[in-house]
Amino acid sequence: MEPLSWTGILAPLVTALWIAAAAAAALAALRFAAGFVLAPAEGQANADGTLTASRGPLEWLEQAAFLALSAVAGVVLIFVLGGAALGLEAGLIGGIFRRLIPVWIALGITLAGSYLLRGRLGLYGKLFDSVIGTAGLVLVLFWVFAAVFGTFDLIVTHNPLGQSGAMKNEVPGTPYTRMIGETAEGAYPVYLLGGDNLGRDVFSRMIAGSWTVVQIAPLATAFAFMVGITLGLPAAYFGGRLDTVLTFLANLILAFPVILLFYLLVTPEIVATGIPTYMAAVMFLFPILFLTILLNARYHTRPALRLGLLAAVIGASGWLYLSLVSERLGAVHILPDWLDLFDVPGGILVVFVSVVFVNAPTVFRIVRGIALDIKTRDYVAAAQTRGEGPWYIMLWEILPNARGPLIVDFCLRVGYTTILLGTLGFFGLGLPPESPDWGSTINDGRKLLAIYPHPALAPALALLSLVLGLNLLADGLREESLRD
Amino acid sequence: MGMFLLRRFAVMLATALCLTFVVFALTNLAPNLEKVAKTQGNTRMSDPEVDSWLANRGYGRSLPVKYGEWLGVLPGYVIEQPDGTVRGRCFGQADARPPDAPARCGVLQGDWGTSTVFREPVGAIIATRLALTGKLMFWVMVLMVPAALTIGVLAGMREGSRTDRALSSVSILSTATPEYVSGVILITVFASSAVGLRWFKGTATSAMENATLENFLLPVVTIALFGMGYIARMTRASMAEVMQEQYIRTARLKGVRFRNVVLKHALRNALIAPFTVIMLQIPWLLNGVVIVETLFNYKGFGWTLVQAASNNDIELLLGVSVVSVVVVLLTQLISDVGYVRLNPRISVT
Predict the structure, then answer these.
(1) B-chain residues near A470 (CB < 8 A)
(2) Candidate from A256, A258, A269 with C-beta closest to B19
(3) Could you tell me the domains of chain B?
(4) Interchain contact A66–B (C-beta under 8 A)
(5) B3 at interface of A, judged by CB pairs closer than 8 A
(6) pLDDT in tens, A215-250
(7) Of A27, A187, A342, B136, which residue is least crowded by CB atoms under 10 Å?
(8) Predicted model pTM
(9) pLDDT 10s digits, B269-278
(10) What CA–CA distances, in Å, run from A212 to A139, A221, A343, A349, A443?
(11) ipTM, two decimals
(12) Longest alpha-carbon distance in chain B
């Protein structure tokens, strides 16, 4: 079998794409430059009070640039649809789009559904008013779906850990053979994005690696927020010595260079001492604490309801907590095995803990800053006059009013956590060396980067697009929440 | 102002002490010490051999004592070896304790100890490596600051315009690209022998002695790109805020040309906030320095940090952390003081 080209029978379209893209770039640059010289055409005021828009050279340029950009989008759409329909006939791009069909379907349904219901979805629905926010949402959802379907074996073409002697550092499109001269029956015929230095499929590893990020990053950020909120609100509300001590501790952690902290916490030697497990035992208490105080503050006037709610919440989260902390062969072994729901591998746990540890002080500072500001508002004074307890005021008066900036920061912070996870992988810390996560894959690929760039380039672009999506999403959310 | 500075220095000192103690405690954990013994001595040592190896070199004592010795508060150890010689922290190995050897030798006496990996005094290693990283950082600043300020001012002077949206997208893209991603992309495009343009070199090892555009531009650009977006966005926000002020409107209504409004009235006030952002960005650039020096094999401060940390080189690691903590706290202090100096409406008391 011949090595596949990138575009297959759609190759003639490539010329069209280049022409359209060059035209769009040139026109956009021209428009940008012209903006400094030409003034925009002024509307003409009519006698009846209406305005007539007129078109100057600037508007014509703008129109032309927009048309060229639409042409680019059209050609790309043909690549996507044609690729999904034709599969490998349409080259590697076709093959990739074909493999991603489940993602396209899920993406289409989610976006169409959200768009139709956008009036009832609050801030999330308003996101569709901003181009930037929508673009970010699409990128983020793409990777979420790719990761989820990837774990169900719907997208990956080969085993992400399976090595092949014949495929070492082969360029994208090389036909797959397990050993030299041996054809593989029933296997996917090519490595879509080539093979890495051990002959593993770069495309499958990229998809499998997204699961690590989608699993850890949002959850770790949520934990960091729980810690930051539970400590930041009282620091701002009570002030005094508590505030001084907590701020000093937060600044202490922030003064550590992140990479030094990772090197100190995420080594096999430290895992052997059990320190990460103890840190997890402390840090995972905060969500339980947070939920308990939250519900108690709200319902302490209705004892019957409160008792039931608290028992259910503490019971469920306590069980989860103990299963998470207790490990069969680890440092902490509390629960009997038949009650232990799951074991988190030591490598994942230590990565999780260190990422929460690095993020929590920043969240603390943000929450504290916002709370200090809101504390002075009239509705807080009203609640105090009403005789509400301090925790009720913090969690049910201050926190809901701080949600706008916190949601925006959450999106940004998930992106930053993704970058941190990549950094850990890049230095080979925490996760096992054969792990397909993006950072480790970049680390593997960088040694031969000058000769074979493709094994490192694929995960690098994947990470870039996910973080970009999260940043755009945060920007869109910020814009829409400011408009409120 | 004097009280403010005094208090800040006290907090700085407390932070540095706490931090070095944490680093000291973590590097002196039993499994880490065992690793040191096995890499420095013999990989196949048995557990009792490891213990005696560590005890003979002063590692076997309690943590506060060892930390006090490193600080120079407590007298250095003198331990008699099995072969009859004496080994001491302040004089190495000798037949007997030399009469002129000082009792204490720690940071307070100016002795930063010896690196177990490089077998050189820590002070000398850090001085040379820091100079190399200083060269890198200088060029990063030269490239990053003007570019970021220009982008920010251009975007912020007409908020919501096409220019603003285009430039804001560029700065979002740059904040979304960590150094290990932009480094990989830049090397592929500009330095790869397989597909790229081959304009520059993918390694900066030769730039340590002789930096040229060919071997030094890629690492500098890689670090500058990540920091640039953030500074540009902060400049844009500050510029957009200033452009809505009353005095700008007055100047516009008076008939001052837009260019003069931006350059003479808005710019100076808009640059106060970016100054603090740039100062606070320096510690973050340290991360980028570590990644880029590893990726491009430029043996500066970041590269030393990685070597020290991965080999559990205790005294070198402590020296490295002291330097980075001082950098972090000093930049914070400068940014606070500078903010007050630039903005007469705020006072520190």
Answers:
(1) 176
(2) A256
(3) 2-109 (no CATH), 122-342 (1.10.3720.10)
(4) no
(5) no
(6) 899 999 999 999 999 999 999 999 889 999 999 999
(7) A342
(8) 0.89
(9) 888 888 888 8
(10) 17, 14, 16, 12, 16
(11) 0.89
(12) 91
